[in-house]
């Protein structure tokens, strides 16, 4: 077994011991239950509208809007999981004397960071994909609508939380646990705020707001992947349906193109480089 696998296994066993996954599972069941209740209630209202009034399909608009809402909640839950799996991975454990026995020969500090990231990112990505797919199924159970794309938005949501996990793990090298948690949640809020500003800018035809949103989304690419995922669920929807979806808070997402993928790889590489450089300079 390689050093990365050993560290990843240790991190997962530690999370099980602290009952992190039990809390996450309970919160997820509660979220999906509330989401199902909301979709059921909306489906009854949609039925009263009838079909294709004013050229708009109520099922498409309601389904896309509700799934967009669930994607926002899924990203938030994934971000919480990413933060709490990496919150005290380096500095917090070092201050409590838990890190020093691990970072000894032949286990290098690079191996330790990679193992912790593999555990956190793997769990968060799998969790996000499962919750997204569960939300899709719940939506279809009550509203006769499927998203235009399924796998691409699921994967992009997973990449978004993997970026958040990388930022949180990198922050754990430099910041205390509390400061790191606050910093990551503020970055998360900044990214989502930028997305909302972009939608407001599009509605008001404000180039300034749209430029601010675009630049911020590139600086915080988890937001760009989230918006891409939102865009993909209605990729083949046009006409009045598309216009009605864009009026909602979760339908006006932007596509960022193929350049986002190599940029994300470079972004994660840069975080890894800075985190490892700071970790090697740290006196444990």
TrEMBL record:
Output a single Gene Ontology CC term carried by this record: plasma membrane
Which positions, given as ranges, span the membrane? Answer: 20-40, 60-87, 117-143, 155-175, 182-201, 260-279
Q: Name one GO molecular function term.
A: ABC-type transporter activity
Q: Which domain of life is it from?
A: Bacteria
Q: Name one Pfam family in it.
A: ABC2_membrane_2
Q: What is this protein called?
A: ABC-type transport system involved in multi-copper enzyme maturation permease subunit
Q: Which UniProt keywords apply?
A: Membrane, Transmembrane, Transmembrane helix
């Amino acid at each position: 077994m390689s050093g990365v696998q050993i560290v990843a296994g240790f991190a997962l066993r530690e999370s099980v011991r602290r009952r992190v996954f039990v809390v996450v599972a309970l919160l997820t069941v509660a979220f999906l239950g509330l989401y199902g209740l909301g979709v059921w209630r909306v489906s009854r209202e949609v039925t009263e509208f009838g079909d294709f009034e004013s050229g708009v399909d109520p099922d498409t608009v309601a389904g896309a809007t509700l799934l967009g809402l669930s994607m926002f909640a899924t990203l938030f839950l994934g971000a919480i999981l990413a933060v709490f799996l990496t919150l005290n991975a380096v500095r917090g454990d070092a201050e409590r004397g838990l890190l020093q026995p691990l970072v000894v020969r032949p286990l290098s500090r690079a191996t330790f960071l990679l193992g912790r990231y593999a555990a956190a990112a793997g769990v968060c990505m799998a969790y996000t994909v499962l919750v997204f797919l569960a939300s899709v199924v719940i939506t279809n159970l009550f509203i006769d609508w499927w998203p235009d794309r399924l796998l691409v938005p699921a994967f992009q949501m997973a990449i978004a939380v993997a970026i958040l996990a990388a930022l949180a793990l990198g922050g754990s090298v430099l910041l205390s646990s509390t400061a790191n948690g606050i910093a990551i949640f503020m970055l998360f809020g900044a990214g989502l705020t930028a997305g909302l500003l972009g939608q407001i800018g599009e509605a008001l035809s404000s180039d300034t707001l749209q430029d601010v949103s675009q630049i911020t989304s590139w600086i915080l690419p988890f937001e760009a992947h989230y918006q891409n995922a939102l865009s993909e669920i209605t990729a083949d929807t046009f006409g009045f349906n598309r216009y009605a979806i864009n009026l909602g808070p979760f339908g006006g997402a932007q596509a960022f193109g193929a350049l986002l993928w190599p940029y994300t790889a470079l972004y994660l590489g840069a975080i890894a480089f800075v985190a490892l450089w700071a970790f090697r300079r740290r006196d444990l």
